[in-house]
Write a structure and sequence with these properties.
Pfam families: NTP_transf_5. The chain has 346 residues and is α+β, with helices and mostly antiparallel strands. Helices cover 53% and strands 14% of the residues. It has one domain: Beta Polymerase, domain 2 (2-Layer Sandwich), CATH 3.30.460. The protein is built from 19 helices and 10 strands. The protein is globular, with a radius of gyration of 20 Å.
Length: 346
Amino acid sequence: MNHDFILEKIQKLVKENISCPELIPLLERHKCLYLRHLTGDAKVNMDIQLAKAAAATRYQVCAPVFAEIHQIPYAAIKGAVLSQDAYGSPFFRASGDIDTLTSREYVDVIKSIFQKHGFIQGKVTDGGIVPYSRKELLFQTAMSHQTAPFIKKASNPLCPYVNVDVNLDIMWGESAQNTDMEYVLSHSIEMEIAGITVKRLAPEMAFLSLCLHHYKDMNSIYLLYEGSLRLSLFCDIYYYTVRNLHLDWKLLRQHSEALSVGSYLYYCLYYTNQIFDDPSLTNLLKMWEVYRDDHLLGSLRLTDAERKTWSVPFPERLFTENISKLMDGILDDADRKKIALNKCLM
């Protein structure tokens, strides 16, 4: 299938409910559970039920942790929370973990709570959970916006281990911007997932956080090389936007100004509209034109030092089965060393 054909069929599926069975392998590869649901994919109901069972296990295992950290500024992000906002159900996004957001001042408190309830900072191997070395823990802290993951063995074979990532910023590890996390986390509300009450970001701040996370997946040299550029990223943004047109866009703009991230939100909306070509997104882009940054739109970068100019069009980057091959022509030795280091330690 050529790229124009793929885009045309996606738009017909989303806007006119015209199914295209030929899309199913691509949608499966791009982890688009909701679009597969729209196509009537015979396997999708089973995958949704598996996602539901796994998510329920994760939140139930974490219930005592959430109960204990309730008085600490934190928020559950991405995963089931995003799925509820974008698709109307917590279980339309297959996820392998729970993501939480807090500020660095609470790391030691949260770490002690997780450890109290049987979680280990480590990785899963054939022999079980292996704790990270001090070197690996320090690398995570220095090079990422996350702590090393907290993992606990579960009794459900559909979800044998529960993995929780603790994010310490809505920006990425390489960013020079200092985010006011007190401001971010002050915009939180409660919701229930699988019977467990958790804190989450209020809708406008949640959308901002979503765009920044997805911008990172669209622009991290290491993550891109590993295949992070997927249609599902843009589905999340599209459905969050069109399902939540009642969002307070003035408040979202205030958040963007306060955190100096408007250009990243524009980037995400711009490329989402390249796929879906939707009037509601077109109107939003006009409202946000002041944040347009053509240097950002035409490049691959998380930092100015690593900026690369794409030589292939966006649809080819998105739908190729081997983006690492497309990237090889624009990477230098330092980029390749960084990719190798991340593979080794992440």
